[in-house]
Amino acid sequence: MSIPGFGSAEKVNHTASSVTLTIPQSYEWRIEVPFNRILKFKVLTGIVEINGTELANNTEIQLSGTKTYLYSPVTDAVIEYVLVENKDDLSLVSASDEGFVEYLSDESNMDSILNLHISIDQQQSGPKVLIIGSKYSGKTTVSKILSAYANKMNNTPVLVNLQPRDGVFALPGSLTATPISDSFDVESCNGYGLTTTSGTLVHNPKQPIVKNFGMADFNDNVDFYKLLIEKLGIAVLSRLDQDLNIKNSGVIIDTPALTSKNFDIVESMVSNFLIDNIIVIGNERLAIELTKKFAYKSTQLNIIKLNKSSGCIEVEDRFIRLQQEQTIKEYFNGNFKTRLSPFKTDIELSGLKIYKNVLTKDLLSQMAFLPGGDDFEKDETNPEEDPERNSWKNIIKQLKIPTVQI
């Protein structure tokens, strides 16, 4: 396995011919770059954005293992790109046999997102925005765009990631909250950037607060998930009280796929982060149901419907897994621009034990751990509803059990 930045440049094939492409105004150049390819491009003329982050002209940018789009908001833009083979890590890309996909589209919802940004930015106090929607509806993209646009207005919003599957300035399996004080690094895995390191970074390093969930799906442990939401909400609100600039900038929250059946989770997010704006993407029924259920907060909570972009596509589980592997690798070793040398130690596989956390009533809702692979069945019996629990016969039986063995 090769380390990013060490010898990888020698393995890249530079013989491919470049292509010049014009992106008309308000068009999107949608691209799907597999892990076994590297897309290198330059913006020759015009203004081009990736998820709200403006790209510098005449500067080479590399993308690999991503499905995204380039947007030209003001005038026609001209780019030059070349597709080369990625030989940086054969073990990572060997399972990816997808091809490079690119096309231009005039069906963009960027105008709606821009209007949404303007509406939120005009609010007097720092807005706290919760973005929800169904699976593959573009929630993460909208959260990036709103964060990037807020940063362009000299704001420092807190980007909260409640999707444990993604690693946002942290490892996959965690929930994070990060003040966005600079533009995103679109060349990094997932398009966010690196955290504080001992070296020099091109972008301002981010300092997230991380709550480890340890699982990719919140349904694996809903109680623990809501507990971490509560703890992360306390940390975020405390930071807002301590920093006036961040307080005025607001909070933007990205979430996993939620439906009306997950109202308890949505309610937990709203109460713990003091949400005043809920953006529902591509699900009118969910927006109507939330309006009814939050009717008691109609004066404090705005529910906004946003159309789903036609560029949203379904992502295969294999692609998600490869992206998680790349995120872990980049977190420790850096990428082709930033070299990191983490401390490493070797352990025997036979001595490795993996535990998963559960919440049990037997331990008064404290953390308990089970070996990975073991199943935990939640106790559905309510002690108050058990007629035999406090019976005289049961009390006598408990008293006869010795507490000390001699």
Automatic annotation (TrEMBL):
Pfam families: CLP1_N, CLP1_P. GO terms for biological process: tRNA splicing, via endonucleolytic cleavage and ligation. One of its GO terms (molecular function) is ATP binding. Residues 133-334 form the Clp1 P-loop domain. GO terms for cellular component: nucleus. The keyword ATP-binding applies. This is Polynucleotide 5'-hydroxyl-kinase GRC3. The lineage of its organism: Eukaryota, Fungi, Dikarya, Ascomycota, Saccharomycotina.
